[in-house]
Task: inverse folding
């Protein structure tokens, strides 16, 4: 599949696990295409419960496609999206969200970078920048559910993106 002139791979390998393309969409803000978001998983995911709560190895991949992106802008966008869509869950995870923001800002994420928010079958949450691990939380189940709920929950950040990500393979 090709979006915004970028060919999305059918398969990626993170944490020594093959993950397969499940769906993708372009996220825009103020009429500017900001990033491509895609879901890669070890097994096909076609419903929100599997996307949020399962132990299927999966990754939300964000490919930054705007030259206006800075690591601070990316981290603030993630925080804002989580706050808007998670309600009280946001406050339960506030420390971890701040931790994630800090990691993203320190990593220097910018235009043309790829960020993977990866959940393992062992309930770990890992963050990759350009396929290099930059963060790991060994007890990441609740945090992963928080992040995945932002895109797949009852009140997702964008319903069209949710539908596009849950196409399956």
Result:
């Amino acid at each position: 599949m090709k979006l915004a002139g970028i060919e999305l791979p059918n398969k990626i390998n993170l944490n020594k696990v093959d993950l397969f393309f499940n769906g993708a969409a372009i996220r825009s803000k103020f009429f500017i295409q900001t990033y491509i978001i895609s879901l890669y998983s070890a097994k096909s995911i076609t419903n929100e419960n599997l996307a949020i709560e399962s132990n299927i190895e999966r990754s939300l991949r964000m490919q930054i496609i705007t030259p206006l992106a800075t690591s601070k802008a990316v981290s603030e966008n993630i925080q804002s999206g989580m706050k808007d869509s998670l309600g009280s869950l946001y406050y339960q995870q506030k420390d971890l969200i701040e931790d994630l923001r800090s990691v993203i800002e320190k990593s220097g994420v910018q235009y043309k970078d790829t960020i993977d928010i990866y959940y393992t079958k062992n309930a770990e949450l890992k963050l990759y920048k350009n396929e290099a691990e930059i963060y790991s939380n060994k007890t990441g189940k609740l945090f992963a559910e928080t992040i995945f709920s932002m895109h797949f929950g009852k009140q997702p950040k964008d319903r069209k993106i949710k539908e596009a990500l849950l196409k399956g393979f």
